[in-house]
Amino acid sequence: MTDTGLDPRVQELLDREEIRALITAYCNAADRHDHAKMRTLYHEDAIDDHGAFFCGPAMEFIDKLPEIQAPMEILHHNVTTINLAIDGDYAEGEVYLLAMHRARTPDGPIDVLVGGRYFDKYERRNGAWKFLHRAIVTDWANVHAPSIIDRDHPFLAGSKFGQPGPGDPSYDFFRLLKRGD
C-alpha cells in the first residue's frame, strides 16, 4: 500500500469513491458499447465471468462484446447497494444491479430485466483501482416476449433517445464526461 500520509479514514473514503467511480464507469461503458473505455477498467490479467456469455480473461471478454452486444437495442445498467471491503491495495465488492436489456431475436424484440449482483475483486496498481475479477450473479429476471417497450408513444414525442455508441445524445452534450476515454 502506498503511504499517502493521509489519515487512514480519509484514505479509505478516497479509495471507496475511486472504486465507486470504477463501478459506474463500467455501467456507462457497457450501455454505450464503448469497448475502448471498458478496456481501461480492467487490469490486463483480470478475469470476467458473465456466465453463459463468457468466462475467462477480461480482455478476451471485451473482444467478444461486439458479438455479445450486437442484438442489444437497449442496455441500461443501474447499480444500487454497493458493499465494499478494502485492505490496502486490494478490495472486494458486492454490487447490486438492475440491468434492462432489449434484444432482437428471430421472433422479434424481447425485454429482459435482470436483478442481480456483481461479485468484484479490485486491485490498486500504479495508483489506479481496476477490476481484478468480476462475476455476475442473477437473482431474478423478468422477461417480456414480445417487448413491451414503446418509444413511439405520444407521451415521448420529441424526446431524445439513448442508443449504443457515439450516436447517443451524451456524446454531443458533455464536455467533461468524455466518451471513449
TrEMBL record:
The lineage of its organism: Bacteria, Pseudomonadati, Pseudomonadota, Alphaproteobacteria, Sphingomonadales. Residues 11-134 form the SnoaL-like domain. This is Nuclear transport factor 2 family protein. It comes from Sphingomonas lycopersici.
